[in-house]
Amino acid sequence: ITNRLKLYGKTMEKLIQELEARVRAKLLSKVIKDDLAIYCYSPKCVYEKAWDKYTKMARGLVVNLKTGEIVARSFPKFFNLNETAETKLENLPLEGPEITEKLDGSLGIFYTYCGEYLVTTKGTFYSEQGEWATKFFRDKYGKQKMPENLTLLFEIIYPENRIVIDYGGKKELFLIGAIETKTGKDYSYQELEQLAEKHGFALVPAKPLT
Prior knowledge:
By secondary structure, the chain is of the alpha+beta class.
């Protein structure tokens, strides 16, 4: 057990070292709140296509700077068809994809810190959307116990946050994803349905494969 803990500690230390190296190179942005830092890839990273394991995972990656532990993990950077080797048509998986509606709001990343439920957006802890989503989440779901091993991902919809589509007076957090915080495993739509049913979340609608 001691050896495993030492290995885990070295892995977490390496993660912060790698992230900080990319901050110095201006490939990642970094915002600090208490012992936490949120990392997100920068415009320079996009322009230079400086994609690697660390820049792709830094799309709202929340890390505890004291412990090196990943607190919240968003969707990794994704690419268009034929934009990278792995998205070339001939390299795509053979099985059919799961397709959901693309809601027109802001990405909300749920996490727990010091016993409090919080929602942030991918670039900063201090956005208006994150503050609104945190209050909405606490008011609607705050009395429930949330899964400790998951980062829940939501689309933040409310009138003052209109991007293009007018949802009228709708105010909601739509569950669009769930990721195992330590491993990065992405939950299937069926698993999202189970989470939504258990906790009463609004769920992003699925679209049939045509």
